[in-house]
UniProtKB/TrEMBL annotation:
Classification via Gene3D superfamilies: P-loop containing nucleotide triphosphate hydrolases
SUPFAM superfamilies in the cross-refs: P-loop containing nucleoside triphosphate hydrolases
Pfam family, one: ABC_tran
Family: Belongs to the ABC transporter superfamily.
Entry's Gene Ontology molecular function annotations: ATP binding; ATP hydrolysis activity; branched-chain amino acid transmembrane transporter activity
InterPro entries: AAA+_ATPase, ABC_transporter-like_ATP-bd, ABC_transporter-like_CS, BCAA_Transport_ATP-bd_LivF, P-loop_NTPase
Organism encoding this protein: Rhizobium sullae
Positions of the ABC transporter domain: 4-235
Protein name (record): Branched-chain amino acid transport system ATP-binding protein
GO biological process, one term: L-amino acid transport
UniProt keyword terms in alphabetical order: Amino-acid transport, ATP-binding, Nucleotide-binding, Transport
């Protein structure tokens, strides 16, 4: 069991505080939905956790190891795989090379095994090993982006708007993959525009409004009280 802890995190962007003294935890085996309107700070939170954006104050820990203020490589090595919004695969490289590039921190044997596991989850990728990633459909590229995250064998996955622009059927499959990973012990932060879908899969939920949580609790409460979300999205 692993715990991922965010304590009193604040993040500034463009001279503005976009994450404001935020605290929450993620647990192994649980999906935590992070919902909220455009500009609430969801992507900024992911980028700050991933070590891409600087943290103004507060702390991010994984099982007691402080990873805030560290490089993206160290955060990844600690077991956090961020699949950022609009994540682009290396479009000039093949599917296989993209997956292998994601396993650079592991031994060749471990990386090969992890790549095979990604192929087992996404047979479409296995059928296109030599294909240039940029020539695949949006859905296939998103599978590859998630596959890259998996190759690192993360303890926690931060999935930011994975479903953007994808057909509902593919979205359902990507969700099913996340649910299966959670059932196998991965902790997941799920940022999703399809709020109903996210709330169906999630064990916990937060609503982010202007860098702060306006709701934290059971997804069931949000499902039964749509007003809570409506208010946040209209604020
Ligand atoms: N590159 C940037 N430079 C400066 N400010 C930015 C940048 N990107 C986003 N912001 C600002 O940071 C705040 C939070 O944006 P962020 O992208 O984190 O929100 P979000 O919740 O992910 O929104 P969305 O649902 O549209 O993806 C917004 O006020 C936004 O204008
Ligand atoms: Mg975003």
């Amino acid at each position: 069991m692993s715990t991922f802890t965010v304590s009193n995190l604040s993040v500034g962007r463009g001279g503005k505080q976009v994450i404001d003294d935020l605290s929450f935890t993620l647990q192994s085996g649980r999906i935590t939905a992070l919902l909220g309107p455009n500009g609430a700070g969801k992507s900024s939170l992911v980028l700050a956790i991933a070590g891409v954006l600087p943290v103004a104050s507060g702390r991010v820990e994984i099982d007691g190891q402080v990873v805030s203020g560290q490089s993206p490589e160290i955060v990844r090595a600690a077991g956090i795989a961020a699949v950022p919004e609009g994540h682009r695969v290396l479009s000039g490289l093949s599917v296989e090379d993209n997956l292998q590039a994601a396993g650079f921190q592991q031994s060749a044997a471990d990386a090969a095994k992890a790549v095979d596991e990604a192929y087992a989850i996404f047979p479409e990728l296995a059928e296109r090993k030599k294909q240039r990633a940029g020539s695949m459909s949006g859905g296939q590229q998103q599978m590859l982006a998630l596959g890259q995250g998996l190759v690192a064998r993360p303890k926690f996955i931060l999935a930011d708007e994975m479903s953007l622009g994808l057909a509902p059927l593919i979205v359902k499959r990507l969700m099913a993959v996340l649910s299966r990973l959670a059932a196998q012990g991965t902790g997941i932060l799920l940022i999703e525009q399809f709020t109903a879908l996210a709330l169906k899969e999630a064990h916990d939920a937060h609503v982010l409004s202007r860098g702060r949580f306006s709701f934290s609790g059971s997804p069931e409460i949000l499902r039964q009280n749509p007003d809570i979300l409506h208010k946040a999205y209209l604020a």
